[in-house]
């Protein structure tokens, strides 16, 4: 029997690898991050997920970048089972990254 974190990881990988055509962006993977600036005793979760992509072209206009972030976020939000699994696993935020310098919050 598969554990819940493994199942949502596989679901996330499959879902994210289908967001963009390969000529536009490539799904790299995800990383779980625990925020150290929030005390462990706080009522809010400390974990968040970074979903990582690499763009085929480094010269993306701001509007194109915003559209790409929106596309990833809407793909995530439409998968209610995945969102429920992430929430049950303690994630309260998902961010999208297209390079190593910046990330954009989805939810």
What does this structure look like?
With 107 residues, the protein is of the alpha+beta class. The chain has one domain (6-35, 45-100): GMP Synthetase, Chain A, domain 3 (2-Layer Sandwich). Helices cover 37% and strands 27% of the residues. The chain contains 3 helices and 4 strands. The chain has helices at 4-17, 62-78, 80-88; strands at residues 25-34, 47-55, 91-97, 103-105. The chain has a 4-stranded mixed beta sheet with strand order 1-2-3-4. A hairpin with a 5-residue loop joins strand 3 (91-97) and strand 4. The N and C termini lie far apart (30 Å). This is DUF3168 domain-containing protein.
What is the topology?
Elements (H helix, E strand, L loop, with lengths): L3 H14 L7 E10 L12 E9 L6 H17 L1 H9 L2 E7 L5 E3 L2
Parallel strand pairs: 2-3
Antiparallel strand pairs: 1-2, 3-4
CATH architecture assignment: 2-Layer Sandwich
Number of strands: 4
SSE string, helices as H and strands as E: HEEHHEE
* Global Rg: 14 Å
Helix content: 25-40%
- CATH top level is Alpha Beta
Largest β sheet strand count, sense and barrel closure: 4 strands, mixed
Strand arrangement across the biggest beta sheet = 1-2-3-4
Number of domains: 1
End-to-end Cα distance, whole Å, is: 30 Å
């Amino acid at each position: 029997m598969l554990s819940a974190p493994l199942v949502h990881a596989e679901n996330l990988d499959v879902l994210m690898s289908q967001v963009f055509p390969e000529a536009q962006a490539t799904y790299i993977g995800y990383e779980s991050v625990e925020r150290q600036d929030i005390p462990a005793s706080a009522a809010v979760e400390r974990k968040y997920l970074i979903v990582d992509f690499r763009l085929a072209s480094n010269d993306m206009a701001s509007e194109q970048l915003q559209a790409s972030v929106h596309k990833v976020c809407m793909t995530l939000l439409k998968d209610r089972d995945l969102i429920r699994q992430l929430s049950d696993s303690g994630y309260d935020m998902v961010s999208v990254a297209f390079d190593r310098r910046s990330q954009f919050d989805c939810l």
